[in-house]
Write a structure and sequence with these properties.
Elements: H1 8-28, H2 38-53, E1 56-57, E2 75-78, E3 81-83, E4 97-106, E5 109-118, H3 124-142, H4 150-163, E6 167-168, E7 174-176, E8 183-187, E9 204-207, E10 210-212, E11 218-220, E12 227-229, E13 235-237, E14 240-245, E15 248-251
Antiparallel strand pairs: 1-4, 2-4, 3-12, 4-5, 6-10, 7-8, 9-14, 10-13, 11-12, 14-15
The structure holds 2-amino-4-trifluoromethylsulfanyl-butyric acid (MF3) and cobalt (II) ion (CO) (2 copies).
């Protein structure tokens, strides 16, 4: 495992990349309304990144081993879609929940963040899932400090999600991030306290739990990217990029529209 420790200069670039990724989510928020297609959201975000920010949308043509190149600039995962939803011509409708996942490259460094959006009015169940998932991400972030272990993060996320009767997706995880989009370590969203890699200042990684109201099992769509729940149940995800600091952590994917850390309720 090759876990990079970022220098002060690299951290400054990661802060900028993180803020820019988050600002794409701020920008797109008012457009997430009934009737818009996810392809239109992709086009808007693409132009904002390329023309306004002068950032590179990292997903576009991203082709890790075993995958064909990703065809769009953002991921949009609707309702029972878990992650890596490819934007398309289907219109969003009131009651949908959608995850928009943005990764930008700025000065060679990546910032990766996603939020859940309600299209019109969500059902009580959908709102609760999104709120639980948001709190789960934050409980994970709260575990980030030197001397703690990756398993501490996974453990608190799993405990919360399963405690309210939901399930944690196993096949995808958070990841180290820097000059590379996905680098070591893998940040599992389940696990045991005190196990796994010990955290050290200068590590940067994402925490991005995917939580289903039904079973954890996944299905791959024939488009080669989109991942859905196998049982058709709803799925939600939130993502931040985080830095381990001497005193704890710093969330790097922060901008004016970032939802604040919640008061814990679950
Ligand atoms: N942004 C996703 C993550 O959080 C990865 C998307 S890869 C893509 O790791 F190719 F689907 F865009
Ligand atoms: Co990520
Ligand atoms: Co992401």
């Amino acid at each position: 495992m090759q876990v990079t420790i970022k220098t002060a200069q690299e951290i400054e670039k990661m802060r900028i990349a993180g803020r820019l990724a988050s600002e794409v989510l701020d920008y797109i928020t008012p457009f997430v309304q009934p009737g818009i297609t996810t392809e239109e959201l992709d086009t808007l975000c693409h132009h904002y990144m390329v023309d306004v920010q002068k950032t590179i949308p990292a997903p576009l043509n991203y082709a890790p081993k075993g995958h064909k190149p990703y065809p769009k600039s953002i991921c949009t995962s609707v309702n029972n879609q878990i992650c890596h939803g490819i934007p398309g011509q289907k219109k969003l409708k009131s009651g949908d929940i959608v995850n928009i996942d943005i990764t930008v490259i700025s000065q060679d460094y990546h910032g990766d963040t996603s939020r859940m959006f309600y299209v019109g009015e969500p059902s009580i169940q959908a709102k609760r899932l999104c709120e639980v998932t948001f709190e789960a991400m934050w409980r994970g972030i709260d575990m980030v400090k030197p001397g703690n272990h990756l398993g501490d993060i996974g453990h608190v996320i799993q405990k919360l999600a399963e405690g309210v009767g939901y399930s944690v997706v196993r096949e995808f995880c958070g990841h180290g991030i820097g000059k590379k989009f996905h680098e070591d370590p893998q940040v599992l969203h389940y696990g045991k306290t005190g196990t796994g890699l010990e955290l050290r200042p200068g590590m940067t990684f994402t925490i991005e739990p995917m939580i289903n109201t039904g079973k954890a099992a996944i299905r791959h769509l024939p488009d080669g990217w989109t991942v859905t729940t196998k049982d058709g149940s709803l799925s939600a995800q939130w993502e931040h990029t985080v830095l381990v600091t001497e005193g704890g952590h710093e969330v790097l994917t922060v901008s004016g529209g970032t939802p604040p850390k919640p008061v814990y309720r679950f």
